[in-house]
User: Which sequence fits this backbone?
């Protein structure tokens, strides 16, 4: 059973398109995250939701919009994709009752904008 | 100054040797520290967590924490070629509600 799963694993799209990445966790965690990993392997937090409430919204272009329909799901929609959006996007979750414990990661979505 | 700093490497060690990976952090009141291993093309995988000063051992891995020096390290004993990966240091910083990661150290274990 996959604990944190995201789809798709690979996404190749043209500039200007709109795309979504979906994430689901079956760990019973209350908190979910979106991280972006650039070509230099640097993992940077983008958003975090705790029980469907947005708690972290880092300096990210408005073209990125997260949505959490319930605490087991966190999706990421990106409008008007740009070349610089190419990266690996990781969804993660952390254990219930705490906002700051270790995070468990999904397998990542490699986004390539051409 | 970066919030979490790691030497990018690569750190090259022969098989069977001890690999020592280091990390410094800027926030004095940080409470929780984690080491993740990331193989190429894969997701980060938690291998160690440490919360108090001193050493914590788990199999071939030992995490060391020195809060006064704002320093955390990971020792890998009897290094194996399968340990070749990027090791990410992550810190739970005060007031932050997500882990802050370093840029990772690439480890190469030579057979």
Assistant:
């Amino acid at each position: 059973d996959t604990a944190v799963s995201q789809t798709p694993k690979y996404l190749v799209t043209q500039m200007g398109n709109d795309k979504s990445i979906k994430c689901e966790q079956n760990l019973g965690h209350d908190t979910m995250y979106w991280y972006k990993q650039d070509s230099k392997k640097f993992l940077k937090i983008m958003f975090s939701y705790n029980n469907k409430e947005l708690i972290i919204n880092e300096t990210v272009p408005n073209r990125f919009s997260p949505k959490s329909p319930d605490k087991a799901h966190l999706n990421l929609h990106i409008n008007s994709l740009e070349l610089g959006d190419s990266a690996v996007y990781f969804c993660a979750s952390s254990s219930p009752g705490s906002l700051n414990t270790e995070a468990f990661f999904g397998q990542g979505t490699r986004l390539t904008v051409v | 100054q970066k919030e979490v700093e790691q030497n990018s490497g690569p750190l090259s060690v022969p098989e069977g040797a001890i690999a020592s990976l280091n990390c410094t952090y800027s926030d004095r009141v940080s409470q929780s520290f984690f080491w993740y291993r990331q193989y190429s093309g894969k997701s980060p995988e938690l291998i160690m967590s440490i919360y108090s000063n001193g050493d914590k051992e788990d199999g071939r891995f030992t995490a060391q924490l020195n809060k006064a020096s704002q320093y955390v390290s990971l020792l890998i004993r009897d290094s194996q070629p399968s340990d070749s990966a990027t090791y990410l240091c992550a810190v739970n910083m005060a007031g932050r509600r997500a882990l802050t990661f370093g840029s990772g150290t690439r480890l190469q274990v030579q057979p």
In short: The mean pLDDT of chain B is 94. Chain B touches chain A at residues 8, 31-32, 34, 38, 42-46, 49, 86, 88, 90, 92, 96-101, 103-104 (CB under 8 Å). The radius of gyration of chain B is 13 Å.
